Amino acid sequence: ESIGEDAFSSSGLETVYIANTQLGISSPAENVKFFGKTVTTSNIYYSDDGTTATFLGISGETLTGATDQLNGASKAIIEGYSSIEKWAFLRATSLTSITIPASVETIGEGAFQGATNLRSVVFEADSHLTSIGPNAFQGASALTSITIPASVTEIAIRAFIYSALKTVYIPRTNKLGLTEGSRSFYGVTVNVIYTE
Question: Is the pLDDT of residue 116 over 50?
């Protein structure tokens, strides 16, 4: 619950991975005082092999400009953010999979537009996602299936246009009024299958 004022003063700590706004700063920074130690902060953590980028945020924050921050990582994990800004992962061609936390409520216009190798979009359980913006997955030409959370009430026109989407999984109790079967789905023709 609390950390002492000089808790890290004699440690070898060099980098702190934390949502920058929790420290009162808006972007990664060097020479930040952190409980008695001068450190570099970053709100992005990369796995040792560089294949996974974890974006750290807090409630109320919007993830923006993530494509350049991937640094070639093929997997992205988002933690804590409330929304994904329009074009956040625009033309993120290295991206093959993304995990979106339950805290995300909106996915903005063109958020994953041109992410041509994106094959897997995972929404965490108990998702609070309510809307998917226009062209959000436009041109995601490797994305063949997606599970839409029960909480979604709006999917904008052309959200999946020019994607490879063929199958949509959605709860029977979905708020979009979708029924099972083959149908036009926001820019593509898909087979809708109920999940229980």
Answer: yes
